[in-house]
């Protein structure tokens, strides 16, 4: 029997859920590129634009600070972080550690239905990429998210989501190129083939090679974007 000294839980009130909606809205603004690295977030203007009070917005910004998507500097305000080459490389190294393990687990745990769905997913991605010479890899068709989901480790999935968010902001500084999208697609096909053979070592090699090629590409973009 529960102790009578423990308060009876009550349903969460509206402000709690409202804060979560505010959090999602601000996170989406950051990840969509509405705010750029180095931008200052004007809380008064953003609260007015979203139609919310400063309270839910500040709670949302506090959560985004813990995720690394904003920096709050005392007496100065809230800023979108700027990632240099060193910070971006560190994120890629962390990403490799997470996603190579995810690929190994996915090779062991994927069901036939998982693999069939992943192949259909890549087929749809290929149609988008081949529809135009200028096509970028579609954001809503994220192959890596699918691999991590198939791995079936919720902690791994949570850490991967955090790293992907930070990398999305970091890479917005150096930009993207369409030729890398097509190359990445071919590398994704190689990863899928390794998963279909149920070979964790092959999945490890394919994912590691893919991520290191991506890192080399990002390094090059940073070099090109640095001022003379």
From TrEMBL:
This is GntR family transcriptional regulator. CDD domains: WHTH_GntR. Residues 16-83 form the HTH gntR-type domain. The keyword rRNA-binding does not apply. InterPro entries: GntR_C (IPR011711), TF_FadR/GntR_C (IPR008920), Tscrpt_reg_HTH_GntR (IPR000524), WH-like_DNA-bd_sf (IPR036388), WH_DNA-bd_sf (IPR036390). It comes from the Bacteria. Keywords: DNA-binding, Transcription, Transcription regulation. PROSITE patterns: HTH_GNTR. It holds the Pfam family FCD. It comes from Sphaerisporangium rufum. One of its GO terms (molecular function) is DNA-binding transcription factor activity.
């Amino acid at each position: 029997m529960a102790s009578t000294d423990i308060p009876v839980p009550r349903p969460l009130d509206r402000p709690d859920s409202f804060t979560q909606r505010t959090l999602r809205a601000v996170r989406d603004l950051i990840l969509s590129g509405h705010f750029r690295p180095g931008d200052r977030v004007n809380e008064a203007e953003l609260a007015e634009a979203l139609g919310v009070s400063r309270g839910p917005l500040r709670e949302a910004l506090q959560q985004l600070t813990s995720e690394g998507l904003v920096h709050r500097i005392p007496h100065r305000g809230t800023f979108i972080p700027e990632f240099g080459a060193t910070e971006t490389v560190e994120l890629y190294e962390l990403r490799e550690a997470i996603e190579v393990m995810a690929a190994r687990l996915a090779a062991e745990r994927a069901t036939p239905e998982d693999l069939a769905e992943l192949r259909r997913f890549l087929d749809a991605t290929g149609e988008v990429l081949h529809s135009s010479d200028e096509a970028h890899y579609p954001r809503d068709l994220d192959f890596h998210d699918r691999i991590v989901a198939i791995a079936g480790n919720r902690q791994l999935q949570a850490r991967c989501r955090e790293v992907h968010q930070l990398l999305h902001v970091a890479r917005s500084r150096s930009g993207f190129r369409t030729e890398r999208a097509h190359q990445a697609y071919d590398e994704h096909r190689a990863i899928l083939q390794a998963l279909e053979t149920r070979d964790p070592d092959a999945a490890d090699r394919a994912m590691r090679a893919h991520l290191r090629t991506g890192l080399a590409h990002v390094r090059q973009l940073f070099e090109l974007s640095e001022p003379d």
